[in-house]
Design a protein that fits this description.
This protein is α/β, with parallel strands linked by helices and about 400 residues long. The chain has a domain of about 130 residues: Aspartate Aminotransferase, domain 1. The protein is built from 14 helices and twelve strands. A seven-stranded mixed sheet has the order 1-7-6-5-4-2-3, sandwiched between helices. A five-stranded mixed sheet has the order 8-9-12-11-10. The longest helix is centred in the last third of the chain and has 33 residues. The protein starts with 15 loop residues before the first helix and ends with a helix. The structure holds pyridoxal-5'-phosphate. The site of pyridoxal-5'-phosphate has 14 residues, from α4. Pyridoxal-5'-phosphate binds next to α4.
């Protein structure tokens, strides 16, 4: 008897929300309703011949949880079904996913282009880490398509961007950038964390690879770290599979189990968080001590039209500039009672951070200014609370400014 069974129905024939509940299930002979947590490092074989078959690949079963694990495999398949990707590989964190997706593609002598509006650790991979191994990198103003074109070289292997950007919520033209980088045979990797798989589908826009910090909306309740790399079967097998298997940033089966269950409620949570974010953005835009609101769903956003074409909603994140700079932004954040101060995002709890002194502290003042991160900017990850309580809390914060 096989150790597990796939359900009879092909999840690809199901609609997205159903895929998130039933997709990828590997049911054990006990017939459990909730997916099983296979908290095991290794697997035993009925004979030496079976062991040999697992290692030659003739036998499909699992060998060792650094290479693959049934709970992790369920998570990978469910995310792939959601994203419409042929293949997915789970990683220990979002940063492990970014590192694997980029480093797996390049060797000394290659070149990479990236948008300068990147999350700090991603910037480190592109600007500091890759050049140490002989991979040259060029950072461009990701909003300016001519800069992407000008940066390309015959040895450019890959390009990297995030959209909407962290923390400024700028929207980059994924389809146009994909076309540009493909003209020299390079690939495009998109960090889709801010948009979530619910609001933006980079593979359909022409990207070759999508990465997530599953730590964020996919968990959505602040428990586990995780990451995932998605792409075509060929992309994953050529660039990602062996890199992850040999270097070992594997997702823990426990985290995979939590994240797998997180996927079941992802559409509901993102829809509600986004609806709350829209109301929060509109409220803030009407307040005299808020100099500017950054929200792609609003008409006053500089890339609103692009966001409408490229995204299915305006995001669960809102950034805004408080009049009076750092001191007033701190006063506002310190006065919140419902909204918690934290640099994380995508959580059921609303979280606020001051990017200039936390997530983007490492950047020089000029680099922060170039990225549009002013001293008065606060970034708010809008949660699942009653939006009226959030607005009351924002009023409380504004009263302290
Ligand atoms: C845009 C973006 N990419 C990648 C990451 C890294 O994710 P993780 O913390 O899971 O490594 C984060 C958050 O930390 C992020 O905001």
């Amino acid at each position: 008897m096989s150790a597990y069974d796939r359900p009879a129905i092909d999840a690809k024939t199901l609609r997205p929300r159903t895929r998130l509940v039933h997709g990828g299930v590997l049911r054990s002979p006990f017939g459990e309703t909730s997916e099983a947590l296979f908290l095991t490092q290794g697997f035993v074989y009925n004979s030496a011949e079976v062991a040999e078959g697992r290692f030659t690949g003739e036998d499909e079963g699992f060998q060792y949880s650094r290479f693959g694990n049934p709970t992790v495999a369920m998570f990978e398949e469910r995310v792939a079904l959601l994203e419409g990707a042929e293949a997915a590989r789970a990683t220990a964190t979002g940063m492990a996913a970014v590192t694997g997706a980029l480093m797996g593609q390049v060797k000394a002598g290659d070149h990479i282009v990236a948008s300068s509006a990147l999350f700090g650790s991603c910037l480190y991979i592109v600007q500091d880490l890759l050049p140490r191994f002989g991979v040259e990198s060029t950072l461009v103003d990701g909003f300016d398509l001519t800069q992407w074109k000008a940066a390309l070289r015959p040895n450019t292997k890959t390009a990297f961007l995030e959209s909407p950007t962290n923390p400024g919520l700028g929207v980059l033209d994924i389809a146009a950038i994909a076309e540009i980088v493909h003209s020299v045979g390079a690939t495009l990797v998109v960090d889709n964390v801010f948009a979530t798989p619910m609001l933006q589908r980079p593979l359909e826009l022409g990207a070759d690879c999508v990465v997530y910090s599953a730590t964020k909306h996919i968990d959505g309740q602040g428990r586990c770290l995780g990451g995932v790399i998605l792409g075509s079967q060929v992309f994953i097998e050529t660039h990602v599979h062996n890199f992850l298997r040999q270097t070992g940033p594997a997702m823990s089966p426990f985290n995979a189990w939590v994240l797998l269950k997180g996927l079941e409620t992802l559409p509901l949570r993102v829809a509600q968080q986004q609806a709350n974010a829209e109301k929060v953005a509109d409220f803030l835009a009407g307040e005299k001590n808020i100099v500017r609101v950054y929200y792609p769903g609003r008409k006053d956003h500089p890339q609103h039209e692009l966001a409408q074409r490229q995204m299915k909603g305006g995001s669960t994140m809102v950034a805004f500039d408080v009049a009076g700079g750092k001191a007033e932004a701190f006063r506002m954040a310190n006065a919140f009672e419902v909204i918690k101060i934290s640099n994380n995002l995508g959580d059921a709890k609303s979280l606020v951070t001051h990017p200039a002194t936390t997530t983007h502290q490492r950047l020089s003042e000029e680099a922060r200014a170039a990225a549009g991160i002013g001293p008065g900017m606060l970034r708010l990850s809008v949660g699942l609370e009653d939006v009226e309580d959030l607005i009351d809390d924002l009023r409380r914060g504004l009263a302290a400014v």
